[in-house]
Amino acid sequence: MFLEKLDPIFKLIPSIRKPSTPLTFKAKLKWTAIIMGVYFLLFSIPAVGVSISTLSQPALQLISIIFAARIGSLITVGIGPIVLASIVLQLLVGSKAINVDLNDPEQKSRFQSTQKLSAIVIAIIEAFVFVATKYVPTSPNYFGLVVFQLALGAIFVIYMDEAMTKYGLTSGINLFIAGGVAYAIIAGTFNIMLPGAIAAIQAGGAAALSNAILAFGPLFFAIIVFLVSIYAYDIKLELPLVFNQFRGVGGRLPLPLLYVSVLPVILATSFELSLTVWFKFLSGVTGSLANLARFIAYYPPGATEPTGGLLYLISPLFPMPYPAKFGGVGGYAQYFAYLSTHTSPLYLPAGGIMYVPEVFHILIYTLVLVALCVVFGKFWIEMTGQNPKTVAGQLQDYGWQIPGFRRDPRIVESMLNKYIPTITVLGSIVVALLASFATLTGAVGTGVGILLTVGIMYMLYQQLEQEHAFESYAKLDKFLS
Fold it and tell me: CA triplet 350, 292, 314: central angle to 5 degrees?
């Protein structure tokens, strides 16, 4: 096997040893608190040679939340290398390009080492890209030093994630994302919305109270998305199952509305934001291809984000409804005026220019996001073994069948075909609309961040209940014996 050839390299990669005995719930809580403390420490320390960004640009906010990072800090790269390495390897395994039996401890260990090695390599590459593309502004004298710090910080995050997985309550990726979103909401409330409300009251006038309330609009919209997300996570369809070897033993197969969770919107948003980085190189195109380059994406001189072109129309690049001194457009009144009056340039390939109303940007962005989420949702269930055929085979292997039907995986597959594709599409549309609603209303924490946090907290709650139940059973068993 190809991965076996990498064994000499795997031996050189440090690894965090598993605890020799199972940890108690309190011990896991302690380790979780320690690791999260280190994470926020790195989150707060700017890299030498750069000034930490205020994250006033929407694209940087989304990048930071999705990758649990803070632009300009030691963890500017965040969990991006872990996520990218995981996605690529999962796709290779799912497509059978790499044959790995994850039930075999030796092959599973080798696969995890491959994932760690890939993440370290990607961390170094992404650190270079962040500095080279000026997303982390620095002087040429500090270029190499900043790249080194960002790469080292990203590698440190990789090992913090491994430590959290082995000693904490859940994976580090989950808690780092949730921690970053919580920080964005708290910081936005106290650093932007609260001062904005106080300034509105101090300004006086008949509209002072309404302006003060509107200052908290991003928080209100975040709460709405949060509550709707919780409701959506709780919607599910349950198919009855029976165990064919024992009569009377039954169960249910839950098919939640968010069958693929928020992965479609993560992949779709990451894809859109990646395009804004990749196509920035078009800003330097001159000559006969200049109009075509600007038709795809128009970048004003020195800008890191497009302000026109096709790429701008599909992007989640909207101003924030914050006061002007906090990097916004001045509040919701000015924000809605911007959306109703602003136009963006669209340079035609054959020459000439037309101005597209921002309303079309809203419409095109929403429709493209929905379409991408549906495509990524269907693609993900096929590549990760969540499609009807694979699920039917798994139920067959475990001895489950649908009552009233003979034991045949084809029958189970046909039954699942009635539900899984439809639920995948509906769930993808729901998360896309929630994310676009949060983006368009300027919800603090962003729609993707809130959706991610709700999913993480929901999963963590279930895991904590399970941990508590196991400890309770252990104490009861000890008491009875």
Answer: 115
What is the CATH code of the structural domain delimited by 210-441?
1.10.3370.10
Domain ranges (residues) in the chain? 2-169, 210-441
Which CATH superfamily, name and number, covers 2-169? SecY subunit domain (1.10.3370.10)
From the list 221, 259, 233, the residue with the least C-alpha distance to 426 is 259
pTM: 0.76
Residues 355, 361: Cα–Cα separation, whole Å: 11
Matching CATH topology for 2-169 and 210-441? yes
Q: What is the DSSP letter of 18?
A: P
Q: How far apart are CA 42 and CA 226, in angstroms?
A: 27
Number of helical (H) and strand (E) elements in the chain, helices listed first: 19, 5
Give the three-class secondary structure for 239: strand
**Strand locations in 151-290, DSSP E?**
236-243, 250-256
* 254 contacts 238 by C-beta, under 8 angstroms: yes
Closest to 239 measured CA to CA, from 427, 397, 402, 381? 402
Encoded tokens for 275: 């395009």
Type of residue at 202: Q
Secondary structure element (H or E) that encloses residue 353, with its range: strand 353-357
Tell me how far CA of residue 63 lies from CA of 84, 95, 123, 396, in angstroms: 13, 28, 15, 41
For 426-470, what is each residue's pLDDT tens digit?
Answer: 999 998 999 899 888 888 887 778 887 887 787 777 677 766 655
pLDDT digits (tens, 9 = 90+) for 365-384: 999 999 999 988 888 787 66
d(CA 321, CA 215): 9
Please, what is the Cα angle at 98 between 95 and 101, to 5 degrees? Answer: 100
DSSP-derived secondary structure for 172-207 = HHHHHHHHHHHHHHHHHIIIIIHHHHHHHHHH-STT
